Amino acid sequence: MAYLWEEIGWVDLEAYLRQDDRAMFPVGSCEQHGRHLSFATDYLIPMEIARRVSDRTGVPVTPPLCFGLSLHHMEFPGTISLSADTFVAAVRDVIESLYRHGFRRLLIVNGHGGNIHPIGTALAPLVDVHRDLRVKVGHWWVDPDVQRVLREHFGDIEYHAAAGETSAIMAIRPEVPKLDRAAYSPWVEGIEYKSPRHWKTYFPHGSAGVDPRRASPEAGEKLIAAAVDRFSRELQEWSKL
């Protein structure tokens, strides 16, 4: 069975920490995901991946950080973004809390591209100060096996609220997607930073990349399974140094 913070208490973790020092910390965002997906997409997926990994490994899963750095989506109503400083502080404080209790090996399961750099910013001083703290960071869609599934099914990798994310949500929360109102725009390459203004101009539907109407629960299950396999291996092969 998955070992979730929401279902256990301090006595359970006190006993767990006598035997192990690993934990998983899912991180996502609350932001627009096209006309067809919900604001919860970026934390529903990493939480489900972590839950399945926990079911396989017995490593406990903290509650997800449901807000991320989503300033580039703020032109779309309902997006809730943290500032970079607030996000970095939140990640730092969660990890400091876990470290104080005795957790020394942490796997962050990230579901949002905008979190990639600030997660690194949060971790740099932590692993410098706490020399015995070890952290792995998994951006689930970046895994080579996950990208292979994306290319096999859709001919391209994921961008935002496109066929890949839509497929993953179809697999875990089939009642959420509303494909009858889905629309998308091709991804726009270039080195200019995409501000909220750019996002609303280039991608007026909020979805960028592969047509989300090509999504399927079968593809979603393969995507999630590939991520679960990778992160389970990362935890199982993580020896104490």
Provide a short characterization of the protein structure.
The chain has eight helices and three strands, in the order αβααβαβαααα.
Task: Please characterize this protein's 3D structure.
The protein is mainly alpha-helical and 241 residues long. Helices cover 44% and strands 7% of the residues. It has a single domain, classed as Creatininase (Rossmann fold). It is built from 8 helices and 3 strands, in the order H-E-H-H-E-H-E-H-H-H-H. The protein has a 3-stranded parallel beta sheet, with helices on both faces. Helix 2 packs across helix 6 (163-172), helix 3 (84-101) packs across helix 4 (116-129) and helix 6 packs across helix 8 (217-236). The longest helix has 20 residues, at 217-236. It starts with 9 loop residues before the first helix and ends in a 5-residue tail after the last helix.
Fraction of residues in β-strands: 5-15%
Alpha-beta content class: mainly alpha
Q: Give the SSE order as H and E letters.
A: HEHHEHEHHHH
The overall number of domains is 1
What value does the Rg take, in angstroms?
18 Å
Poorly predicted segments: none
Helix content: 40-55%
- Read across the widest sheet, the strand sequence of neighbours is 1-2-3
Individual helix count: 8
The beta-strand count equals 3
Mean pLDDT: 96
> What characterizes the major β-sheet?
3 strands, parallel
Q: What shape does the CA trace take? A: globular
At CATH level 2, the architecture is 3-Layer(aba) Sandwich
